[in-house]
Specification:
This protein is mostly helical. It contains 7 helices and no strands.
């Protein structure tokens, strides 16, 4: 059913602009968010992937706080716009459910930037981001896996599994260190994989 909807919208010339807008929002969200995170890492010689959380880069009073938090705010806003543009491209109930969860995830990511460490809401919005992101990508991946996109679905489900395992491994063995930046990056990379794959789908063959 979702495949039929996708084929119909691709045959509609009016969809071309929407597809390009979706691509722009998706790529921009990834570029702004990861660009800001990487730039903040480079500017923070004290930061360690094994000894810190990514949110430490945005802690109030840090020289990197403005850059890191702005990247999350803007990236989250772009991510919500991306989710909205994807909505009409599928009528599959699982994918639409995943989009609702991923929209909430993008809002939470922006709120992480709005409420940096050590403000009270930070922990709640940060945990909510990772939980909703994991659930949303998993549900989308399962819909793909049981539908017409088994390769993409398999990659997304494996990415989610690696994300969950990285957190369990850290929790059980404190590996690769006391910091949580590594599992955070694994999850963020999985989310970026979903967004980029969905963004470029209309332009593939």
């Amino acid at each position: 059913m979702a495949a039929a909807a996708s084929e119909e919208t691709r045959d509609d010339p009016g969809r071309d602009g929407t597809d390009r807008l979706r691509l722009a929002f998706g790529v921009a969200a990834i570029a702004v968010t990861f660009g800001g995170i990487v730039a903040a890492m480079v500017l923070a010689p004290w930061f360690s992937l094994t000894g810190n959380a990514l949110s430490d880069l945005g802690e109030v009073g840090r020289s990197t706080a403005g850059l890191f938090n702005l990247a999350l705010l803007v990236g989250g806003a772009l991510g919500t716009a991306f989710a909205v543009t994807v909505w009409d491209d599928t009528d599959d109930p699982l994918r639409r459910g995943a989009l609702v969860v991923l929209f909430v995830s993008m809002v939470c990511m922006a709120l992480v930037g709005a409420f940096p460490l050590p403000t009270a809401p930070h922990g709640l919005v940060a945990v909510s981001f990772f939980l909703t992101m994991t659930l949303g990508v998993l549900v989308w991946g399962l819909a793909d896996l049981t539908g017409e996109r088994p390769i993409r679905g398999g990659v997304l489900v494996v990415g989610v599994a690696l994300h969950v395992v990285s957190w369990l491994w850290w929790g059980l063995f404190a590996w690769p260190g006391e910091g949580v930046a590594v599992p955070e990056l694994v999850g963020s990379a999985t989310l970026a994989c979903w967004a980029l794959w969905v963004a470029v789908e209309p332009f593939r063959g």
